[in-house]
Amino acid sequence: MSHTINPEFIALAEATRDALANIALDGDESGEYAAAREILENSGLLALRIPAALGGPGASQVEITEVFRILAQADPGIAQLLQPHYGFTDAVVMLGSDEARERLYADIRAGKRIANAAAERGGRHAADFSTVFTRQEDGSYLASGQKFYATGSLGAAWITVMAVDGEGSVIMSFIPTDAPGLEIIDDWSGMGQRGSGSGTLRLSEVAVPADFVFAWSPATRPTAWAEAGRLAHAAIDVGIAEGALRYGVASVRASNRVPFELAQYASLVEDPILRFQVGKESAAVRAVAALLRETAAVIDRAEATPDAPEPLLTEVREGLLATKALSADVSNRVSTELFSWTGARTADRSLRADRFWRNARTHTLHDPVRLRYADLGQIELNR
C-alpha cells in the first residue's frame, strides 16, 4: 500500500537530521544538547501536527513517524523530544477555552516545545500518582509533587503534568515551565538517550488556571492517542537501527584491513559471510520500516473515522504490538552487530560507535518487548 507523504516535511526532517549529525558526537561526549535543541526548535518541524482546519500543516501519523525515524538516525535523544511535543499538540483541543488553545498553538507555531511529566518513582505502576492538584475556590488549582523522566523538559516552554485531583481522578494539565514554584532539574543520567532531557520536575504549589486542566482517561483522550505515542517510540527504534546500519556499512567500506584468515580478499567488502550478515540486517530494517508505515496508516484511518469501530481499533493494536516488538529487537541487534563487522578498531572510544547500542538499549527499556510479543500471541491464540 502506498501512502501520500508531503516531500516538504521529509526535506525538513532530512535537513534537520544532517544538522544534528554534525554535532552528535560532541553532544554524546559532553552531555550538552542546547545547540541540538536549538536546531530542532528552528527546524519548522514543531508545528506539523497543528490541524489543517486551524491553519497548520496537518501532518499525518505516516508523515510524523517518518520524521521520528529520520531524526533518530542522527540523534534519537533529540528525536524523542518530539514524542511528547506531537502527542500533546494533539491534546490541545481538550483545553477548556479558545484563549487557552490559541495560546498553545501560537507558541507551537513559534517553535516552542511541549514536554511531558507523567512518571513518578515509588508507585506500584505508571498511573499510581502522588502528585496532587488541589482545587481552589476560584476554580483554579495548586499543583504539588515530584516527577521523574520528565521527557523533553530541558528547554521546553510548556510541560504537561499527569496527576490526581482531590477526588483521586486522573487529570492532565499544561503548565508554562517558567511558572513560579516549578523547578526542572537536569539529573537524567541514563547511559543512552542523553539528549532527551528527561530530568526531574518539582512542583511546589504551582498555580494552574482551570482552563489548562482537564480530565484524562481512555474515554476522553483523542482517538488512538496512546497508540500514536507508542508508535513514535517504535519509529525512533527503527531510526536507531538505520543509523547503526549506515554507520556499520560506512566503517566496512572505509577499512583497508582484513583478518589474516581473509587475506585473499582485497577488502572487507568482498567477505561473503560479512555480505550475508549486512544483507540480513538490511532486510530486517527495511521490513520493520515498512511495517511502521503500515501501522501509522492504520492509526490515520482510526483518527479520521468518527467512533472508530472495534475491528479498526483492533487492527491498530495488533499492528502496534508487532511494530513495537520487532523495532526494539532490530534496533538492539543491528547496533550490536556493527561491532563484529570491523572488529576492535570500532571500540575506540573517540569514535563513540557504542552510542547506537546505548541509545537502543536505553530507549527500548521504555516498553518491555516480552510483553508486546505475549500480547500479540494471546490475540492470535484467542481469535
UniProtKB/TrEMBL annotation:
Flavoprotein found in the keyword field: yes
Keyword Oxidoreductase in annotation: yes
Superkingdom classification of source: Bacteria
GO molecular function terms noted in the UniProt entry: acyl-CoA dehydrogenase activity; flavin adenine dinucleotide binding; oxidoreductase activity, acting on paired donors, with incorporation or reduction of molecular oxygen, reduced flavin or flavoprotein as one donor, and incorporation of one atom of oxygen
Organismal lineage: Bacteria, Bacillati, Actinomycetota, Actinomycetes, Micrococcales
GO cellular component terms attached to this protein's record: cytoplasm
Protein family: Belongs to the HpaH/HsaA monooxygenase family.
Residue ranges of every copy of the Acyl-CoA dehydrogenase C-terminal domain listed in the record: 231-367
Name the UniProt record assigns to this protein: SfnB family sulfur acquisition oxidoreductase
Species in which this protein is naturally found: Mycetocola tolaasinivorans
